[in-house]
Design goal:
The protein is built from eight helices and twelve strands. It is an alpha/beta fold. Helix 4 (about 85-95) runs parallel beside helix 8. The longest helix is centred in the middle third of the chain and has 20 residues, at about 105-125. About 30% of the residues are buried.
């Protein structure tokens, strides 16, 4: 079954390039050239991935991303000419899973798409339940097979990378991870200078699972080193 990808890009040349590249990888694509069209397509069909440009007409990319995250857990890959660190932090903070700056290499883009789809498809289609796959820590219950997370009596919706970070910490309850180690484990790439990517995802994860994110109980900062799972 072909994975369906929504391409939201108003530059026709780049749009056609993305379509050609993804079709060669045997992905199905649907096109939207502005924010309104993108949100309309989301109401009409299900997608496994969204490639989203930030500078699009009618409804800007940041607002489209915010609305996507209100209802959907679909992985979102931001594709933008905005390469400043603050732009990346805003995009990741609003719920994007990855951020690629224009101009980009098609090899890098397709590799990121493959990795995001593998994670998302496993997350959604591995639906059998097995109580041995459930890990508990305090009020957190995480099912490694169904990718469901509960905090107390409430279900929490995590993005794929948020889930992977929490799983990493829960799997090694006494270990302190540096930002570099987290980045390499979750993004499967060499850690360069983009430490804010990890920081933003940790902050977003804390908002979802902590009673008071400013005084985290579950994901604690080890100053000068990194993060660890808090004792409960």
């Amino acid at each position: 079954m072909q994975s369906k990808i929504l391409i939201v890009e108003d530059d026709r040349e780049i749009h056609e390039l993305l379509m050609t590249c993804l079709h060669k990888e045997n992905y199905q694509t649907v096109s939207a050239y502005d924010g309104e069209a993108a949100l309309h397509q989301l109401k009409q069909s299900d997608f496994e991935l969204i490639i989203l440009d930030l500078m699009i007409p009618k409804i800007e990319g940041y607002e489209v991303l915010r609305r996507i995250r209100e209802k959907h857990n679909i992985p979102v890959l931001i594709l933008s000419a905005k390469g400043e660190e603050v732009d990346k932090m805003i995009g990741l903070g609003l719920g994007a899973d990855d951020y690629v700056t224009k101009p980009f290499g098609l090899g890098e883009l397709t590799a990121r798409v493959r990795a995001m789809l593998r994670r998302y498809l496993y997350l959604n289609h591995n639906t059998f339940t097995d109580t041995s796959a459930i890990v508990r820590h305090g009020d957190i219950a995480m099912n490694y097979q169904t990718y469901e997370v509960e905090v107390g009596a409430s279900k929490v919706t995590l993005t794929a990378k948020e889930f992977d970070i929490l799983k990493l910490l829960l799997s090694h309850p006494s270990r302190v991870f540096t930002k570099s180690q987290i980045y390499q484990a979750i993004w499967k790439e060499d850690y360069l200078t983009d430490e804010n990517t990890v920081t933003v995802h940790i902050r977003r994860l804390r908002i979802k699972i902590e009673l008071d994110p400013s005084q985290p109980k579950y994901i604690q900062t080890v100053w000068g080193i990194g993060y660890k799972l808090g004792e409960v």
